[in-house]
């Protein structure tokens, strides 16, 4: 069968490593003091010598851990002794908070080049406004993500590219100006109900107790210290994927899974299936996808072949929710941690740094003329009603059409006033749409 790729839709979480300053003070005792009166310290586990440490940290997961690789890759341990004296990383400072790191910039360039390799007849085209559309939200980190991406795509010709930027973006960052969502979801303490309940479970209490025992404390500190250590662990591991993180050494694999689930509970109710409003709020990029595909199928000569949008990780989670992807039959709650071990809603896989959702529209010479295929972080998505990820556009369009036609943001104004939105994640997202003439 001869296929032509007609249009490609990509939604990418394009900020692999955002530098975030966290003020953490943890005193680690090197004495042999035990927690309480127990003669047993902790699980016999050493993170430093573990050749396969746990690397899934929710939205702070490095993209190199989850993306679809064409060949197997293995991380070889450095086999160096730990330094005798720990030193502060001088690159971590308040003036660089929220900046892209150098490793993040390189990851974006490599991601652009991998797409270019897969779709050569499209992404090797020189830049023109008739072929490419770029847009990013009005933040430094989305601009830097855009800049790194186009440098990976166009190399020394990157200066020719132009991008649109909006102060209030109804497509890429609608949640920021949705008063109803801010009041009823983002600023609503009930959004964290399951998360707070999970912190009261025996699994979480055992984690807190065990970590402090592992570090040599005779007493339990505030569990916020655990959260700070976990943040430093996952950020540091995202910055330096190939080296062990000192902060991660405080946790066992099982404890990291517990902390990952706790983080998933937050996002599940804030930007996922835990609140019905989230699927409504995620419909603008879905509507844009549907309308661009329809215009392409109907033969529009004014549609750009490539449209790339740079936004924030909340958008990718809201978009996945609006699409109905990765929805669990049973909601995530505080009391079903063990039964949700194989859950679909896992932010480590959905929205790590540099996450991307891709939809490719194919024009075929046999059977259904137009077909579409979805990818999540370069892995094929088993979309409902499709065969091995490949879907009839007629089948998919029926589902998307209803969501697109009912995409009305007027509900956002049904609140007293608009508050400043809290930072949901420092990850970034890219939404791309490509029209190609490729022979497979």
From TrEMBL:
Its EC number is 3.1.3.62, 3.1.3.80. GO terms for molecular function: acid phosphatase activity; bisphosphoglycerate 3-phosphatase activity; inositol phosphate phosphatase activity. It is an enzyme of class 3 (hydrolase). This is Multiple inositol polyphosphate phosphatase 1. Belongs to the histidine acid phosphatase family. MINPP1 subfamily. The gene is LOC108734578. Residues 1-33 form the signal peptide. GO terms for cellular component: membrane. PANTHER family: MULTIPLE INOSITOL POLYPHOSPHATE PHOSPHATASE 1 (PTHR20963:SF8), MULTIPLE INOSITOL POLYPHOSPHATE PHOSPHATASE-RELATED (PTHR20963). Keywords: Hydrolase, Membrane, Signal. CDD domains: HP_HAP_like (cd07061). It is found in: Membrane. It catalyses: 1D-myo-inositol hexakisphosphate + H2O = 1D-myo-inositol 1,2,4,5,6-pentakisphosphate + phosphate; 1D-myo-inositol 1,2,4,5,6-pentakisphosphate + H2O = 1D-myo-inositol 1,2,5,6-tetrakisphosphate + phosphate; 1D-myo-inositol 1,2,5,6-tetrakisphosphate + H2O = 1D-myo-inositol 1,2,6-trisphosphate + phosphate; (2R)-2,3-bisphosphoglycerate + H2O = (2R)-2-phosphoglycerate + phosphate.
């Amino acid at each position: 069968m001869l296929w032509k790729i007609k249009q490609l839709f990509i939604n990418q979480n394009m900020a692999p490593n955002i530098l975030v300053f966290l003020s953490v003070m943890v005193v680690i005792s090197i004495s042999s003091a035990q927690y309480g009166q127990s003669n047993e310290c902790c699980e016999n586990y050493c993170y430093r010598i573990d050749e396969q440490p746990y690397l899934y940290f929710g939205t702070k997961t490095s993209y190199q851990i989850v993306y679809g690789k064409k060949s197997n890759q293995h991380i070889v341990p450095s086999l160096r002794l730990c330094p005798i004296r720990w030193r502060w990383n001088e690159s971590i400072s308040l003036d660089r908070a929220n900046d892209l790191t150098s490793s993040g910039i390189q990851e974006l360039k490599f991601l652009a080049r991998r797409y270019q390799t897969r779709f050569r007849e499209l992404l090797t085209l020189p830049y023109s406004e008739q072929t490419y559309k770029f847009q990013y939200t009005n933040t430094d980190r989305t601009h830097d993500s855009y800049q790194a991406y186009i440098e990976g795509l166009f190399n020394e010709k990157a200066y020719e590219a132009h991008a649109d930027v909006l102060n209030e973006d109804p497509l890429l960052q609608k949640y920021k100006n949705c008063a109803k969502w801010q009041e009823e979801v983002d600023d609503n303490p009930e959004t964290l109900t399951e998360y707070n309940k999970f912190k009261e479970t025996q699994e979480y209490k055992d984690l807190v107790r065990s970590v402090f025992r592992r570090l040599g404390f005779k007493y339990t500190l505030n569990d916020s210290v655990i959260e700070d250590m976990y943040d430093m662990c996952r950020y540091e591991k995202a910055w330096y994927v190939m080296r062990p993180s000192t902060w991660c050494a405080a946790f066992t694999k099982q404890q990291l899974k517990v902390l990952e689930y706790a983080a998933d509970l937050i996002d599940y109710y804030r930007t996922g299936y835990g609140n019905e409003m989230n699927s409504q709020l995620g419909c603008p990029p879905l509507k844009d996808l549907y309308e661009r595909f329809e215009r392409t199928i109907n033969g529009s000569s004014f549609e750009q072949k490539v449209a790339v949008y740079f936004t924030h990780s909340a958008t990718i989670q809201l978009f996945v929710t609006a699409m109905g992807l990765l929805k669990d039959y049973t909601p995530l709650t505080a009391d079903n941690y063990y039964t949700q071990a194989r859950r679909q809603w896992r932010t480590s896989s959905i929205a790590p740094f540099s996450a991307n959702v891709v939809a490719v529209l194919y024009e075929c010479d046999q059977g259904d003329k137009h077909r579409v295929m979805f990818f999540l972080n370069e892995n094929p998505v088993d979309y409902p009603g499709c065969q091995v990820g490949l879907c009839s556009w007629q089948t998919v369009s029926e589902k998307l059409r209803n969501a697109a036609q009912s995409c009305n943001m007027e509900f956002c104004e049904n609140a007293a006033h608009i508050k400043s939105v809290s930072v949901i994640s420092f990850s970034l997202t890219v939404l791309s749409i490509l029209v190609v003439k490729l022979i497979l």
